[in-house]
From TrEMBL:
This is Class Ib ribonucleoside-diphosphate reductase assembly flavoprotein NrdI. GO terms for molecular function: FMN binding. PANTHER family: PROTEIN NRDI (PTHR37297). InterPro entries: Flavoprotein-like_sf (IPR029039), RNR_NrdI (IPR004465). It comes from Paucilactobacillus nenjiangensis.
């Protein structure tokens, strides 16, 4: 099993991309290589065969995210990438991000994807993340990957 961490993500205004950069540096310090695909830069889906983690910032219509305003905008291409040839089956979890000013809608799209595709919601972070976020999220990712790899086939 490869020790690399594979990431599928979308970053429209650069915050998530910046965070992936910090995470990549953290992993590199622990001799782990990160391979990341930003769907904004690579919109044409390819078949993914190795386990990966998804990162998704929230872009939703206005509203409160409870009774209304929970409709995803702008990031649907990531969903298309996950759907392509059942790529989602190799995803061991999702990390959500957003802006806490959106209150109940904070990181909501990633929660919606976790439910839709039935993979674990690993963690969330705000905007470009805090100084301690790369380590916290790296640990969560390693844990989620181990859980996924230990799952008996068919469960
Ligand atoms: C039109 C628009 C809608 C947004 N909606 C939400 C939202 O519903 N919930 C949330 O937590 N953040 C929301 N955000 C904030 C983004 O998720 C946040 O800025 C994120 O870090 C963007 O990631 P990116 O720079 O990698 O694209 C919204 C931002 C924009 C521009």
């Amino acid at each position: 099993m490869s020790k690399d961490i594979n990431i599928l993500y979308i970053s429209l205004s650069g915050n998530t991309k910046y965070f992936i950069g910090k995470l990549t540096k953290y992993f590199a310090e622990h001799e782990i290589t990160v391979n990341a695909i930003n769907v904004k830069e690579n919109p044409e889906p390819t078949k993914l065969t190795a386990p990966f983690v998804t990162f998704l910032p929230a872009f939703l219509e206005g509203g409160n995210g409870v009774n209304n305003g929970d409709r995803e905008i702008l990031t649907g291409r990531l969903g298309q990438y996950l759907d392509y040839q059942d790529n989602f089956a190799h995803c061991y979890g999702i990390v959500g991000s957003g802006n806490r000013n959106f209150n109940k809608q904070f990181a909501l799209t990633a929660h919606q994807y976790a439910e839709r595709y039935d993979f674990p919601f690993i963690a969330d972070f705000e905007l470009r993340g805090s100084e301690s976020d790369p380590e916290r999220i790296a640990r969560e990712i390693i844990y989620a990957r181990a859980q996924f790899e230990n799952q008996p086939v068919g469960e």
